[in-house]
Amino acid sequence: MDVTRELLAYYEQDREHDRLREGHGRLEFWRTQDVLRRRLPPPPARVLDVGGGTGVHAEWLSADGYDVELLDPVPLHVERAPALAGVRARQGDARSLPAADASMDAVLLLGPLYHLAERADRVRALAEARRAVRPGGLVAAATINRYAGIHETVGRGSYLRENERRAAHAAAADGIMFSPRRGFTAYFHHPEEVPGEFADAGLPEVAQYGLEGAFWLMGDVGDWLDDPERRALLLDAQRSVESVPSLLGVSGHLLTVAHRPR
């Protein structure tokens, strides 16, 4: 993907390393792990983690026995990720994967799609994932939901600031979200538009999973995540409603999964 100066400046602050390891972000992390562990082929399958950052998911995938290669456009991420046991990393673009045809058992796009504002670029990235995965192999992509900006800014209290409020409502209108706090533009999907992008990339049959449900909007969700027993109950609660169509858009993030047709 195009790495703008603003995007590079944000990620070179190394904020991504802890985003899913601390605080409320752990709900997204554990739910992504929960869904993927149910959908991935068994280890030692070959997994390409595209836009994998510093390896937050590559780390547990490798520990589970998968053969993991991480691809990311940010030099700092590519420098840090190989410090994790069993993780290989190189710099690259989701729209032009340095992988041979049908060479992977699974391709994960857990970061790239919301950094690609143009639909054609998102479809191209999904088509590259389809090309790189073997017939019957898995393609999984994360997207940010259209109204997440409104939900998040209210939850953080930044909705009181006019520039944040304006940006959140602009994203709700057309999907283009410029974050004054982060300094770069992202794309926020309607859940129902994601299957069309998958279909245009040659992946016509999808399953969709709301990752956080409404629970990310709870002020005390951190207390649940800190307690292993309560965390297990919270994950089970969201698992029970994860694919209810009327609830998909409530989550901050959506995970869409497809198999390359045989």
TrEMBL record:
What biological process terms from GO does the record include? methylation
Q: Which residues form the Methyltransferase domain?
A: 47-137
Cite the SUPFAM superfamilies for this sequence: S-adenosyl-L-methionine-dependent methyltransferases
Whether Ribonucleoprotein counts among this entry's keywords is no
- Membrane-spanning intervals of the chain: none
- As recorded in UniProt, coiled-coil segments are none
Question: Can the keyword Cytoplasm be found in this entry's annotation?
Answer: no
Pfam families with a match to the protein in the record: Methyltransf_25
Task: Cite the entry's keywords alphabetically.
Answer: Methyltransferase, Transferase
Gene Ontology molecular function: methyltransferase activity
Can you say what this protein is called? Answer: Class I SAM-dependent methyltransferase
Source organism per UniProt: Nonomuraea terrae
